[in-house]
Design a protein that fits this description.
The protein is α+β, with helices and mostly antiparallel strands. The chain has helices at about 10-65, 125-135, and strands at about 100-105, 120, 140-150, 155-165, 175-184. It has one domain. The strands form two sheets. The chain has a three-stranded antiparallel beta sheet. A two-stranded antiparallel sheet has the order 1-2.
Length: about 180
C-alpha cells in the first residue's frame, strides 16, 4: 500500500501567512477610506467657507448699490456707511479704514430703498453667529470684511473667513480670503 506524501489541507503556517496578508490588505484599505473621508470633509468645509466669503462679497456689492457712493444726491453714503438705528444720521464708518465688519440680512433693521434688510454689523461675534447660521456644519472662528483702499472712485475690501478645517484639534485653523474691488 502506498501512502500519499502530500498532506490533505493547509498547514498552520500557511493559514497564518494567508491571514497576515488578508489583515494587511484590510488595514491598508481601511486607512485609505478614513483618509478619503477626512479629505472629503475638509473639502466640504473649505467649500462652505468659500461660499461665505463670496456671500459677504455679494452682500457688500448689494449694500454699495443700495446707497449713494459719496452722498452726491444727499442720501446715505456708501463711503460713510449708515447708522444702523431708525434715525437717518450718517456716521463715518470707514474711518479709520482698518475697521472690521460683516454685512448681514436682518429684517428687524429698516434700510434705504428695496434693500431694507442689509446692514453693516461691527460686532464680530454676531458676524460669526450669522455665518454659522448660513453654514451650520462649519466651525467658524471669524467672518469679517476689512476695508483696504478707499477713495472717491474705487474701494477695495478683504473678505476673510477663518474656520476649523477638520474634526481634530480645535486650535487648527484655515482661512479663505476674497478681495473685492468696487468702483463708483
Amino acid at each position: 500500500m502506498r501512502h500519499n506524501s502530500k498532506p490533505k489541507g493547509d498547514t498552520l503556517i500557511e493559514v497564518l501567512f494567508a491571514f497576515a496578508i488578508l489583515s494587511s490588505v484590510m488595514a491598508i484599505a481601511f486607512n485609505a477610506s478614513i483618509a478619503s473621508f477626512k479629505s472629503a470633509q475638509s473639502a466640504s468645509r473649505r467649500s462652505q467657507a468659500t461660499f461665505l466669503a463670496q456671500y459677504q462679497a455679494d452682500a457688500l456689492k448689494t449694500y454699495r448699490d443700495s446707497l449713494d457712493w459719496n452722498n452726491e444726491l444727499g442720501n446715505d453714503s456708501f463711503l460713510d456707511g449708515i447708522n444702523n438705528t431708525n434715525d437717518t444720521k450718517v456716521r463715518s464708518f470707514f474711518n479709520p479704514p482698518e475697521k472690521e465688519f460683516c454685512i448681514i440680512k436682518d429684517p428687524a433693521i429698516p434700510g434705504p430703498g428695496n434693500f431694507a434688510y442689509w446692514k453693516i454689523q461691527t460686532d464680530l461675534n454676531d458676524c460669526k453667529t450669522k455665518g454659522s447660521a448660513l453654514a451650520p456644519k462649519l466651525a467658524i472662528n471669524s467672518m469679517k470684511i476689512t476695508p483696504k483702499d478707499l477713495d472717491e472712485k474705487i474701494a477695495s475690501f478683504e473678505v476673510k473667513i477663518e474656520y476649523n478645517p477638520g474634526s481634530g484639534a480645535s486650535d487648527l485653523t484655515d482661512t479663505v480670503t476674497n478681495t473685492v474691488v468696487l468702483t463708483k
